[in-house]
Predict the 3D structure of the following.
Amino acid sequence: MLKRGRVIEIKSHGELEAMRAAGIVVARALALIAEAVKPGVTTAELDEIAETTIRDAGAVPSFKGYHGFPASICASVNEQVVHGIPAKTQILADGDLISVDCGAILDGWHGDSAITLPIGTVSAEDLALSDATREAMLAGIAVMSPGGKLTDISFAIESRVHEIEEANGVEYGIVPDYGGHGIGTSMHMEPFLPNYGKPGRGPRLRTGMAIAVEPMLTLGTEQTLELDDGWTVVTQDGSRAAHWEHSVAITDNGPWILTAPADA
């Protein structure tokens, strides 16, 4: 039976298994999108792949209709950080970088994940940006264990970014206004997870918590703007951005990535 703390949902192992089933649906949709991306493909076509995959699995796209969002994925291209709206008029070109965020609801439980994909031949700088973002996500996931504090995850993400910056002689912007979140019977729940900060702060991590870990990095400023469509968030200076995300459960045996592929 679902147990609740004051604000953070605690799940039983069976409920986490139900979330895992939703996560597998999301992973499958993103895998098919990764196979489909190439120059000439529209972001609307990618959205159709995701919606078909999700509904064929008996699930429901969690993004579609969420506060009026019109699609099943967020497709954010180049300087778009998050919440890009798929469109027939947005045609991917060689050298583009696209972040695809996808969510599904299965039997009342949510899965949420994001990947960044190169289109055709992409610059080494853009590939390194995506790799750094993914590495930061994995660093945050690695410290998710019972007894820790929420901002231990934030600190691990930020620390990994700075390690990569020092190793590669680059500087990335860590987007401050968007971050991770609790997930379970709703897509966005407590707690909010910043992608930077000092360790040892915030609520204590407990077995049965599930948190979406999602760093967003840029090649320039960390400052963003929201476009007139009311959704699409872009970098203020037009620099490119990357976004990676997994929904992760905290267990006694270590972090469980609920949105990993089925064979992972």
